[in-house]
Design goal:
This protein has 16 helices and nine strands. By secondary structure, the protein is an alpha/beta fold. The structure holds adenosine-5'-triphosphate (ATP). Adenosine-5'-triphosphate binds next to helix 7. It comes from Methanolobus profundi.
Amino acid sequence: MRTDMLHRTIDELMEMMPWIEDYLSSFAIDPSQFGRTKLENLGSILTEEYFEERGSDYQTFIDGFFLFIEQVKVLQEGNVLTVGSLTVLPGHNKNGEKEEFSVELKKGEVTAIVGPTGSGKSRLLADIESLAQEDTPTKRRILINGRAPDDEERFSTEGRFIAQLSQNMNFVMDLSVEDFLTLHAESRMVDEISHIVQKIYDTANVLAGESFSRETPVTQLSGGQSRALMIADTALLSPASVVLIDEIENAGVDKVRSLELLVSNNKIVLISTHDPLLALSADQRIVIKNGGISKLMKTTDDEKKHLESLEKIDRKITQLRDQLRTGKEIDMSDLLA
Ligand SMILES: Nc1ncnc2c1ncn2[C@@H]1O[C@H](COP(=O)(O)OP(=O)(O)OP(=O)(O)O)[C@@H](O)[C@H]1O
């Protein structure tokens, strides 16, 4: 890695790791002035005297550079907790009756939350989001990795390990899709920024019904497009290991692929839904009744067998919806045949 980096230009290194600017500026080196210079040539261009004047030498500068990179990487990985399991300890339902069992959710698993309108699905998501400790209307307690979270884990906004994708994504910044993703990638201090930006953009376009360009301002994306962008971003760039999704179904995104993508990144995914296709794509489902968890059902093999036909029905419904939206006549001839 070291030799590879020595051969790279300052511009290339800045693209991969914009935060090295801090290190360079501690030697009064302006990266824009030396953009095309390779790191290994910086010493001869700046001369030994330059480094001597700063009480150092080129070799110390280079050693410090690699040490700085290592330290930042440790910080990057170290500041976000990896959650292997979440436990929901029993609270009570709307009548004050105790829930009968606790539920443990493990990484790589998708859990659907189902139940009638107003039964308390969003409440359960909110309990998990706030890592409730008997201080919400349900009086539930949430454990992470089998233990109670400390205050820092509950209340700090830094390094949050829970991401929530809500029904309405409102962007407050008027950036293009590309600038938005680049900014996020920079703040996450990842390597190969342009590569990850491209990957998220491509994935979002697969998930969204209608495609959009990298230049589109995020404020002009449709509901489905912004949802798709946030799902791809959360799956591929967010350090969060728990993802909470409130109602994905009406957002015009490829729901099943979205879930697959999130799970392939080894996260704990919870999704509140009324959609049979999504519910059966999950590994298990929590049934909420009158504000309380009343059942935990594993998706059976028989149910999984029906997934394919459900997907067909779902595609047909999507097609009908598109026909309706674009002012075409509804065509059901293939169904009748
Ligand atoms: N165990 C409980 N005790 C007291 N209040 C509760 C409990 N569970 C849910 N509630 C309250 O009931 C109301 C409806 O719950 P919620 O919004 O979570 O329903 P939902 O299932 O998500 O509905 P929808 O399907 O319409 O989105 C909320 O005000 C919520 O705080």
